């Protein structure tokens, strides 16, 4: 019988590494000449991600600069501010971290069939009988290290006969650690008591009793530990129970969640064909029927065509919202057949929904037409399939009262909620189709405010004349000002406020102007004027 082997992977920088990866993928537009550069958080400065604790925010993760300054995960943010007043504090994305770690657990099944998450920053794998595929456990750990390093994750690894021992060696022994069954007790004994996965209160009691090592607990009679700490009941993580789990006296199986369901259909041809397109409707109908039975809809599709000579043609298509309409999905894929090299023919076709989302059954209107948001999503899908996923964008509202920050353009395929019918209205903000806010905004916002020359009666009064693009304009009437103060939590010190005016010139055209700064505000010289938008 093969001895049980458990691998533990500790990712000490997982939340911070994930945050850095997300930040690296976000677009950083070049700052406009009138605006101070906003490059986001300074990665060289101390930065921590905070989560809510029992007595206020606590440190969930920290970058190297914050760790060097004394940051400790679990410590209160207010206490660390006393040590490092310049620390940047951002909210942690706990649900996002958990979802990403769960995906990483599924990804790690390349090494063994059973894997699961282990806390908020680790993975546990039952590698019994799998290590020989990599030439032994040392080769398997080397492959794990290399692949995780390619994902930007620094990992500490260990393999031991039990889950508790592997967890302890990964965090408190030299990595990578491989412990044979016969050396389990000897290797565990010098480790600190915290290697038994005990809570802080229990560890404090053990330190007061002078029991700082696992070997100290091994030397204590079992009856004494059971009388002092108990064995079962409300506190399952007692020293005696954790010690028995680490030594293999109590079972602790790896509870591996089932893999996500695959929605895939395969069609094999009786003989090679040069044009497999006629087989596509049947495969799509079968796939959509399977999705309907599961209450799911496809967001991304993958079509694979297998030639008789072993070559494979692969095509991907995406949808702006979950769909299981065979005709719509067929139109997204039929363009992929143009210019297809059939070689000596295709003998198999595979169609898979690689990304699915829950989709409730819909009902058409009484006149037989589809809802407007469904029609819009269908149009976005077809345009994206023809022009590219990044070519079709939708406007997304942001929480900011600065006009150029209140709206951002994102790929419509990535944000299906922006295509909902209740968010659309003709002639919305900035021409993007969004419902306008309470304050009136121009129909067209310039990509960047343009500097203008202004003549005014008093320094802080409304403009009388202005020159824009070498053309003079005389103002007949005005409305304002509407003052917009700097966002102190984002803008640099010295950023000036803005006073916006809605003006109408001779000829009836209306423009949106703003004065940046006030005379004598101590934040620069004379105020500058800009034109920011045009009204209908």
TrEMBL record:
A Pfam family of this chain: IMS
| Keywords, sorted A to Z | DNA damage
Name under which the protein is recorded? DNA polymerase Y family protein
The answer on whether this UniProt entry bears the keyword DNA damage reads: yes
Q: Which residues form the UmuC domain?
A: 45-167
């Amino acid at each position: 019988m093969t001895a049980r082997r458990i691998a533990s992977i500790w990712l000490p920088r997982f939340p911070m590494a994930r945050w850095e990866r997300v930040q690296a993928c976000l677009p950083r537009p070049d700052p406009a000449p009138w605006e101070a550069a906003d490059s986001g958080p300074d990665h060289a400065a101390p930065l921590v991600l905070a989560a809510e604790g029992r007595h206020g925010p606590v440190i969930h993760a920290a970058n190297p600069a914050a760790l060097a300054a004394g940051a400790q995960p679990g410590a209160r943010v207010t206490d660390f501010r006393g040590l490092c007043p310049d620390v940047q504090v951002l909210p942690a994305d706990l649900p996002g971290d958990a979802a990403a770690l769960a995906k990483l657990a599924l990804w790690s099944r390349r090494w063994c069939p059973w894997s699961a998450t282990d806390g908020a920053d680790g993975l546990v794998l039952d590698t019994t009988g799998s290590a020989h595929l990599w030439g032994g456990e040392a080769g398997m750990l080397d492959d794990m290290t290399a692949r995780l390093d390619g994902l930007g994750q620094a990992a500490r690894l260990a393999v031991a006969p039990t889950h508790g021992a592997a967890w302890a060696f990964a965090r408190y022994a030299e990595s990578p650690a491989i412990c044979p069954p016969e050396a389990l007790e000897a290797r565990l004994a010098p480790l600190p008591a915290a290697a038994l996965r005990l809570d802080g209160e229990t560890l404090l009691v053990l330190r007061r009793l002078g029991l700082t090592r696992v070997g100290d607990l091994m030397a204590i009679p079992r009856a004494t530990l059971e009388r002092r700490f108990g064995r079962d009941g409300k506190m399952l993580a007692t020293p005696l129970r954790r010690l028995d789990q680490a030594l293999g006296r109590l079972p602790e199986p790896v509870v591996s969640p089932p893999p996500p369901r695959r929605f895939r259909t395969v069609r094999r041809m009786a003989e090679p064909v040069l044009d497999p397109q006629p087989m596509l409707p049947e495969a799509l109908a079968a796939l959509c029927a399977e999705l309907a039975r599961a209450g799911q809809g496809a967001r991304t599709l993958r079509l694979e065509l297998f030639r008789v000579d072993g070559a494979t043609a692969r095509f991907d298509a995406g949808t702006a919202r979950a769909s299981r309409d065979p005709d719509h999905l067929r139109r997204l894929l039929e363009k992929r057949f143009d210019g297809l090299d059939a070689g000596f023919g295709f003998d198999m076709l595979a169609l898979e929904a690689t990304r699915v989302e829950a989709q409730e059954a819909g009902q058409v209107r009484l006149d037989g037409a589809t809802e407007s948001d469904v029609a819009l999503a269908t149009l976005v899908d077809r345009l994206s399939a023809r022009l590219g996923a990044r070519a079709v964008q939708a406007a997304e509202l942001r929480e900011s009262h600065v006009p150029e920050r209140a709206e951002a353009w994102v790929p419509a395929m990535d944000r299906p909620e922006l295509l909902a019918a209740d968010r659309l209205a003709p002639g919305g903000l900035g021409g993007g189709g969004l419902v306008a806010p309470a304050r009136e905004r121009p129909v067209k916002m310039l990509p960047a405010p343009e500097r203008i020359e202004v003549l005014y009666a008093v320094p802080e009064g409304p403009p009388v004349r202005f020159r824009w693009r070498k053309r003079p304009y005389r103002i007949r009437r005005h409305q304002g000002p509407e003052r917009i103060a700097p966002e102190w939590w984002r803008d640099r010190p010295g950023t000036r406020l803005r006073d916006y005016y809605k003006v109408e010139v001779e000829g009836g055209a209306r423009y949106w102007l703003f004065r940046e700064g006030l005379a004598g505000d101590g934040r620069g010289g004379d105020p500058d004027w800009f034109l920011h938008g045009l009204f209908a």
